[in-house]
Amino acid sequence: ADILLRGYFGWNSRWALQVLDEMFSKDAPVQPNLVIVYFGGNDSMGPHSSGLGPHVPLPEYVGNMRKITIHLKVPFLYLMGASFVREIISQNMAVILCSCKVFSELVRTNELCKRYSEACIELCQELGVKVVDPYTAIQERDDGKTACFTDGIHLSSKGSKIVVAEILKVLKEAEWEPSLHWKSMPTEFGEDSPYDLVAYDGKKTLNPSEWTYHRQIQWD
C-alpha cells in the first residue's frame, strides 16, 4: 500500500475546508482507498479575545466535519484528539512566554478537548463513519499523562503506538470489502522468482512474500 501523510502545523477544520477540493479532487484519476482525518485538537483551543487564532466554535466544528464527511466518498476514519496534560502545557508555555514573547496565551484543556471529541463521535455514529478514539485509550492508562506526551500536547513514541493500535483495531473489525487490515491485503508481486533466496538444497528459490514466522510482528 502507498501511504501519503499530510500534516500542517496549527491547522483547524475551518482551514481544511478551504483546500478540501484541491487535496481530494473528485476528478482525480486515482482515488484513495482509505482516508484518516484528524481535526479537533486546535479547533478545541479556547477562544482568543481578539477573535484570531485556531479556535473554532463547537457547532461550526461539527458542521465542518460533516462537510468533510460528505465530500469524502471512500471509507475513512476519524482520528479523535487524544488529550492534554494541563500541568505540562502550563510549564512549557510559562517558559516560552518568559523567554521569548512570541505567543499570546494559549488555552488548552482536557475538558474542551473532550467536548469536541464527544461531538465528533456522535457525528460519526449518525453518519455511519468509523472513529478512532485514542482520547479514551490514553485516559485509561495509569501512565497516560506522563508517558504518552512529549510536551503535554504532542504524542510520544508510546502515545503514538497506542494510536496505531487503535487504528488497526478499527481496520480489523471493519466489514469493508476488500478489507484494509494489513494481514488481509494481497501481496504485490508475490509470484515465485529466480531472484528469491536460494533453498537449502540449492536447486530452487524460496518465495518469502507470505512469510511472517522469521521476524517478530509488532502489530496484530
From TrEMBL:
Gene3D superfamilies: SGNH hydrolase. The lineage of its organism: Eukaryota, Viridiplantae, Streptophyta, Embryophyta, Tracheophyta. Keywords: Hydrolase. This is SGNH hydrolase-type esterase domain. It comes from the Eukaryota. Coiled coil: none annotated. The keyword Hydrolase applies. Signal peptide: none annotated. Pfam families: Lipase_GDSL_2. SUPFAM superfamilies: SGNH hydrolase (SSF52266).
